[in-house]
Amino acid sequence: MLIKQVAVKNILTKSKLPDADYVINPYIGCNHHCVYCYAEFMSRFTGHTGEKWGDFMDVKEGYKILSTEKMSGQTILLGSATDPYNPLENKYEKTRNILLQLENGKADIEILTKSPLVLRDIDILSRMKHIRVGISLSTTDTVFARLTEKSAASPDKRIDAMRQLHLAKIPVYAFVSPLFPFLSDYKAIVSAVEEYADEICFENLNLRGNYKQAVLDLIAKHYPEVFANFVAVYNSKQNFNRYWQAKQEEIETFMRKRKTPYKMYFFHDKIKKA
Ligand code: SF4
Predict the structure, then answer these.
(1) CB burial of residue 248 (10 Å; 0-12, 13-18, 19+)
(2) Average pLDDT over all residues of the chain
(3) Percentage of the chain with pLDDT > 70?
């Protein structure tokens, strides 16, 4: 792993994501090694063209102190192209320091992570009035998670992090993403998280980036029984729309019978990443 500290002027970036006005990525790169990582395209824009996404991490330094005094009603998302609680955060504490700068500001702050390291910052999070923490998971199956999200915390640890955030009275939501056709059991995920989640959001797997072949290779090798049907979903826009439209209706029917509010992100071009 190549780790560098890089100077940046500004850490706040305007966003086109559906639910975020601005994003903050305290690191460039992410070492959770998700096979479907949508953020991989960032390599090109950050001077990492010969390096493989996941093999490098830049730690941002030198940015100006954040002031959100004039940002009432606007949302800042921590972690659109990295996990703000990736393992480097243990040492560098960039996310923790950013939260300390944001905690008395006016903006709504949202964190998206796969890591129980977020629990380290419960002291700050519990003081914040406009905070929401999202925990991402695409499965409750430990084997599938290890194959697809090689270095991230297991689903059990993430669900336990949700439980602890909930017990600490910090608003928390489950970001059920990405749902893999024929492999992600959304009912099992909902059952596991609904006691702790204030909201459950669902997003489907897109295969538009360079990671497409790696995902297909993984499915062919480990889940040959679903491979043909899996490929068929991504063979044409028509198949994709038909499959996910039906799945969306199925999930909505299931969720309407439950108490937890939910949100669907199936046909958004701009999506959350971490
Ligand atoms: S946690 Fe998010 S940013 Fe990190 S590797 Fe996984 S998908 Fe990419």
Answers:
(1) middle
(2) 94
(3) 97
